[in-house]
């Protein structure tokens, strides 16, 4: 059923919560979905032949090069020809089936088709002959992606399918066949989207061997700590790869023999091929629990000449059924396969899994944990772009109706580019260098588009007088202290937008020229400011990556209580007059700068928190509320394993874009001592640490803050010695963590990790460093969790990275990699980013959180607020002005919230965006898990009617997480596990008789299509 548009919404009577349409929904076509499935036969092995293509949204070629089929020197692949060819072949025979996954490509192809061709494709979809699987914009990575990005890219792809094909285009199955490891949060997202199953191919080779032997290749994956079956999903693992069996690849790029069925031919091979296939099927069936198995027939960019594929598959099915024994082959799809085993299994209990599938290795020395960090600059850009996309969408909704399509088109541009960025060879960093550059260009151009829409939204929200809002400018290089408007203007306004659902207080740093500055808050009160000199050594280290800048200082001030989904403006004036008063002001704004003496111990702090440095210039302790926690922190490097280091193919595994394999188990400090420059002032005290000419840090403690900011700058990594290097930031404490540490899952759930251990199989430790690395998108921490009042030390990061705890009390995050050898897993070039020539320089931030005593609190309850704030950081725009502050305030709103009131501390608006035909998409999430906090982990009930400050929500219809089907009409297949039976899941909402009442359970996300009118 296609989601009805607002014209058939039943409006909320008195705001009642769950609404059903009083118009009959579109009736389901009788032959799509499970109704299109070929019945299995009893007493034989039923072989579901699944033709498919895996079309990377960028990898060896760019997105456009893959679509159009250009640059064949990199790879012979053209997606437009694949889809053309497949459609032609499907129309020839109603028995044939095909599945397609990547909507980035299919939507582009669709726009180029005639109405006649579109009608034919719709018929194929309605008859279940062409089925869409997963349905996202891409097949996203599962290690370097944030859950917000995953949900967005899936939603955007499924919206295209829903708008184009209605219910028959709705995916039922997750298809993550190529990502290099699989997260629990990804599976949880699929379950919340109403999927009945999930399939993938890449798991650890030892785990696969164990599962094959025990018939545990299929299971029920429990993906949440919350009770109930809603988060569980049937999960299947391929026998080996997602390609056709050896000898049965009939694609134009393959060399396997076709079926030669003329008995008079000297090359006649039907009997042999049937025997070979039958042997493969029966061997494979030994590892699966039912009489149904799946035979994947496809690979990367297969089916450009689909007639070759289908002609031979037709023969394969026909002759195997005629000549084989005990097997039944037929065209099928993953959803039909799931339905068949669900029908057959009955009350059979399935094994369960509660952890995840990281890290992935495919041999003893190939742990795919390097890509957790590969291309760190792009990973940082993707994280920032998500914040801006959320801000852009929120402001568009809050600005009111837009009569033109231009605003939506501008947002759609960034939606598409961010969807591409989540691909498992994009944000993963495993693409070729020229492809990486194309990803960055596409994302940059889309950011510029969305900047225009934000400017348009501000031009509606801010003006209250007769003047038009000045042009808004956005500075994308503030992290490297560059912004032309703040450097060159003597009078400008900074507008700070907060996309979070709670008020935020943050420190602002703007690159400026030296001088005396006045900063006025929205009420006209003058703020305390501090001018922090830019350290020359730090500027030199990023010169190749830094746009031209004249800044000599950073202007620092505190932006307090920025409203939820709202903004504050700050009026900034530079004064050049030189008199006694200004001298006093200059002194008050200045920063004391000195170079520490050799062997001098240094301490910086804010009264609540202090950081102590030893005589070598390294951190030796952190003091919190008078309690000292001994620790060390340093930048270190692993030597990447080079090529040609052994005779065995398994031993000869160099470190590369995918694989992290250090040459040895010890990381080497970049330096055992650091030169210190100490800068102290009214708002921030910071210590600049110079480890070498290519590695430095700034350790900052802001007034009133309870965390330590560590801004690292690394690169160009020297490789003139012929050794690739992988750089980590390591924190070592005395906390007795017992081999345990904790990491996030795609920025949301928190999972226990145990060193040198896997929960469901026995680990043979062949790579003691790489085999203990996990993806970190938000936080990693260690604690003495055997004591209720033990200490906790955490790092919160600003982009996805690899991390671990190799010793008790120790955590490390990898920040940069530069390698000289390809790891032989397909990309065909070493990970050696040039930057602007000599090598890439990267700057990023870690937030060190230290708590000496939990006093009964759960560690995550201390980490989540900081992690949320760092993920959804405020976004700034700037404009010059000749107006006085009074005139500015009389003409423009200097402060406004989009919400009537801030939401409870445990509730967050994950999504507010324009949807279709004047409706909007709203997602609310509970950001605490079960047991993380005595009060914040409890269910919360909200009233939606007056959620927004300027609009009344007049209708709210709940959907699944992907916003492509009504929650009230969603039913999933039931499965048995050893402990309890899962009933068919129907998502429902508890209603209040008078108000729009929405209750959120811990870690729950609820999605609504809303209609709103101005108050």
TrEMBL record:
Pfam families: Alpha-mann_mid, Glyco_hydro38C2, Glyco_hydro_38C, Glyco_hydro_38N. It comes from the Eukaryota. One of its GO terms (biological process) is mannose metabolic process. Residues 1-23 form the signal peptide. GO terms for molecular function: alpha-mannosidase activity; carbohydrate binding; metal ion binding. It catalyses: Hydrolysis of terminal, non-reducing alpha-D-mannose residues in alpha-D-mannosides. Its EC number is 3.2.1.-. Residues 366-443 form the Glycoside hydrolase family 38 central domain. Its cofactor is Zn(2+). One of its GO terms (cellular component) is lysosome. Binds 1 zinc ion per subunit. Transmembrane segments: none annotated. Keywords: Disulfide bond, Glycoprotein, Glycosidase, Hydrolase, Metal-binding, Signal, Zinc. Belongs to the glycosyl hydrolase 38 family. This is Alpha-mannosidase. It comes from Daphnia galeata.
């Amino acid at each position: 059923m296609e989601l009805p548009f607002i014209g058939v919404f039943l409006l909320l009577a008195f705001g009642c919560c769950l609404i059903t349409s009083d118009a009959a929904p579109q009736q389901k076509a009788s032959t799509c979905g499970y109704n299109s499935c070929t019945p299995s036969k009893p007493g034989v092995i039923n072989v579901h032949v699944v033709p498919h293509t895996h079309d990377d949204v960028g990898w060896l070629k760019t997105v456009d090069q893959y679509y159009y089929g250009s640059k064949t020197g990199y790879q012979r692949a053209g997606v437009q020809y694949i889809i053309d060819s497949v459609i032609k072949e499907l129309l020839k025979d109603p028995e044939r089936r095909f599945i397609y996954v990547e909507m980035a490509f299919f939507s582009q192809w669709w726009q180029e088709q005639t109405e006649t061709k579109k009608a034919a494709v719709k018929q194929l979809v309605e008859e279940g002959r062409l089925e869409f699987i997963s349905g996202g914009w891409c097949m996203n990575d599962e290690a370097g992606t944030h859950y917000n990005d995953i949900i967005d890219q899936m939603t955007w792809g499924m919206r295209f399918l829903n708008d184009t094909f209605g219910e028959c285009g709705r995916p039922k199955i997750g298809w993550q066949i190529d990502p290099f490891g699989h997260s629990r949060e990804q599976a949880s997202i699929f379950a919340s989207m109403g999927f009945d199953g999930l399939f993938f191919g890449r798991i650890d080779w030892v785990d696969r061997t164990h599962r094959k032997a025990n018939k545990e290749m299929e299971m029920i994956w429990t993906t949440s700590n919350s009770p109930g079956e809603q988060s569980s999903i049937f999960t299947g693992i391929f026998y080996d790869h997602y390609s056709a069996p050896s000898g049965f690849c009939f694609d134009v790029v393959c060399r396997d023999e076709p079926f030669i069925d003329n008995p008079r031919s000297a090359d006649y091979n039907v009997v042999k091929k049937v025997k070979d296939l039958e042997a493969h099927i029966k061997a494979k069936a030994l590892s699966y629990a039912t009489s149904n198995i799946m035979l994947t027939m496809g690979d990367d960019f297969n089916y450009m000449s689909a007639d070759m594929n289908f002609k031979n598959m037709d023969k394969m099915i026909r002759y195997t059924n005629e000549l084989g024994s005990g097997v039944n082959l037929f065209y099928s799809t993953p959803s039909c396969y799931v339905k068949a085993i669900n029908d057959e299994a009955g009350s059979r209990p399935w094994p369960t899994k509660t952890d995840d599938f990281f890290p992935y290795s495919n041999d003893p020395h190939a742990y795919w944990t390097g890509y957790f960090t590969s291309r760190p600059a792009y990973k940082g850009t993707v994280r920032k772009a998500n914040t801006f996309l959320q801000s852009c969408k929120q402001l568009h909704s809050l600005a009111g109706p837009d009569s033109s399509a231009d605003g939506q088109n501008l947002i759609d541009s960034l939606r598409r580019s961010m969807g591409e960025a989540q691909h498992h060879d994009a944000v993963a960093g495993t693409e070729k260098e020229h492809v990486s550059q194309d990803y960055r260009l596409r994302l940059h151009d889309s950011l510029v588009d969305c900047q225009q829409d934000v400017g348009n939204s501000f031009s509606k929200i801010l003006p209250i007088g007769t003047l038009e809002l000045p042009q808004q400018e956005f500075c994308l290089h503030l992290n490297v202290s560059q912004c032309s408007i703040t450097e060159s203007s003597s009078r400008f306004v900074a507008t700070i937008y907060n996309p979070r659902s709670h008020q935020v207080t943050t420190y602002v740093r703007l690159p400026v020229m030296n001088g005396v500055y006045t900063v006025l808050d929205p009420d006209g009160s003058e703020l305390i400011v501090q001018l922090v000199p830019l350290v020359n050594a730090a500027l030199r280290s990023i010169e190749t990556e830094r746009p031209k800048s004249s800044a000599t200082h950073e202007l620092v001030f505190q932006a307090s209580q920025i409203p939820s989904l709202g903004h504050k403006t700050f009026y900034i004036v530079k004064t050049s007059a030189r008199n006694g008063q200004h001298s006093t002001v200059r002194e008050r704004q200045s920063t004391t700068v000195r170079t520490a003496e050799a062997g001098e111990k240094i301490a910086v702090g804010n009264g609540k928190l202090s950081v102590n440095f030893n005589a070598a210039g390294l951190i030796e302790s952190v003091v919190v509320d008078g309690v000292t926690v001994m620790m060390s922190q340093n930048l270190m490097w692993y030597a990447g394993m080079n090529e040609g280091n052994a005779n065995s193919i398994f031993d000869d595994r160099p470190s590369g874009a995918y694989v992290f394999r250090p040459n040895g188990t010890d990381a080497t400090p970049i330096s055992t001592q650091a030169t210190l420059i100490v800068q102290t002032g009214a708002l921030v005290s910071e210590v600049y640490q110079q480890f070498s000419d290519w590695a430095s840090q700034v350790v900052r403690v802001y007034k009133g803050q309870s965390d330590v900011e560590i801004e690292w700058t690394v690169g160009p990594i020297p490789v003139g010695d012929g050794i690739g290097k992988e750089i980590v930031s390591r924190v070592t404490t005395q906390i007795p963590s017992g081999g345990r540490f904790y990491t996030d899952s795609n920025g949301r759930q928190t999972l226990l990790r145990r060193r040198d251990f896997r929960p469901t199989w026995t680990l043979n430790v062949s790579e003691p460093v790489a085999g203990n690395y996990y993806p970190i998108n938000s936080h990693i921490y260690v604690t003495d969790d055997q004591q209720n009042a033990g200490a906790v030390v955490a790092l919160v990061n600003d982009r996805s990275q690899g991390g671990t705890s190799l010793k008790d009390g120790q955590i490390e995050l990898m920040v940069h990699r530069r390698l000289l050898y390809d790891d032989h897993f397909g990309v065909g070039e070493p990970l050696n980013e040039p930057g602007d020539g000599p090598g890439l320089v990267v700057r990023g931030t870690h937030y060190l959180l230290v708590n000496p005593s939990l006093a009964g609190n759960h560690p995550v309850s201390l980490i989540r607020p900081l992690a949320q704030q760092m993920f959804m950081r405020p976004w700034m725009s700037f404009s010059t002005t000749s107006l006085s502050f009074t005139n500015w305030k009389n003409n423009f709103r200097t402060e406004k919230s989009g919400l009537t009131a801030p939401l409870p501390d445990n509730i967050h608006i994950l999504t507010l965006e324009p949807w279709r035909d004047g409706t909007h998409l709203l997602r609310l999430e509970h950001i605490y898990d079960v047991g993380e906090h005595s009060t914040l982990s409890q269910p919360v009930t909200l009233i939606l009617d007056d959620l927004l400050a300027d609009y009344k929500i007049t209708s709210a219809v709940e959907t699944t997480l992907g916003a492509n089907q009504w929650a009230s009409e969603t039913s999933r297949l039931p499965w048995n596990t050893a402990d309890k039976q899962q009933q068919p899941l129907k998502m429902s909402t508890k209603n209040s008789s008078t108000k729009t009442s929405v209750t959120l359970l811990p870690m729950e996300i609820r999605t609504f299509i809303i209609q709103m009118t101005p108050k």
